[in-house]
Design brief:
The protein is built from three helices and ten strands. It is an alpha+beta fold. A hairpin with a 2-residue loop joins strand 1 and strand 2. The chain is elongated.
Length: 211
């Protein structure tokens, strides 16, 4: 369930964004502590009114304008590509579609093109992006597979689309990340990532089981 152990391109982008923010925040913290210690230990210096005003202006411009501008620019430089990796592909004609409807307190999963229905489990091919169409039947929920992608709200009367992709085979845990009532803590699901050939076999077998 760790977002810092990514297994897909979207989750990898999120992890790099987290590390970049952590590194920048660490640098800022060190700088602030260093300035605080310097202010405590330095020898007092007499300044005239003009000099004092110039020093004050430097701190206001540096800390109130330059630092926020640099921080926001760096955050956007990392954040925009990370968000792009989670958005649906421009052309989705050939992309596998999975519909996920949240209920209190379980997940209804359907593959509309293959006429397959499941509960609390998704199956996807490795190395191939799929579009997960997320909605809700009752209250607001949030679809989240930490190692594969970011969170996406499931909202009644609305369908949101998340691009999901795994880089490796395996079973990945998912949860509802929006408090939705007494059963929220147990509203889990799994995403099973298969090799492309195994996924084709699974599709065929699952379609036969639903017939």
């Amino acid at each position: 369930m760790s977002t810092l152990d990514p297994a897909g391109p979207a989750a990898t982008s999120s992890a790099w964004l987290w590390w970049a923010m952590f590194a920048f925040a660490t640098v800022v913290l060190i700088a602030v502590v260093a300035l605080w210690l310097y202010a405590m230990w330095r020898e007092p210096v007499e300044h005239g009114d003009a000099d004092a005003q110039r020093v004050q202006n430097r701190w206001i411009i540096g800390g109130g304008f330059v630092l926020p501008l640099v921080s926001i620019t760096a955050l956007l430089a990392f954040g925009i590509p990370a968000g792009h990796n989670m958005m649906p592909l421009a052309s989705d004609d050939d992309v596998l579609r999975i519909d996920v409807t949240a209920h209190r307190w379980w997940w209804e999963v359907t593959y509309p093109d293959q006429d397959i229905g499941l509960n609390n489990e998704l199956h996807i091919p490795v190395g191939v992006p799929v579009h997960v169409h997320v909605s809700s039947e009752d209250v607001i929920h949030s679809f989240w597979v930490p190692r594969l992608a970011g969170k996406l709200d499931a909202i009644p009367g609305r369908t949101n689309v998340l691009r999901l992709e795994a880089d490796e085979t395996g079973t990945f845990q998912g949860k509802c990340a929006e408090f939705c009532g007494v059963g929220h803590a147990h509203m889990d699901f799994t995403v099973e990532a298969h090799s492309p050939d195994d996924f084709d076999d699974w599709l065929e077998e699952a379609a036969q089981d639903d017939d």
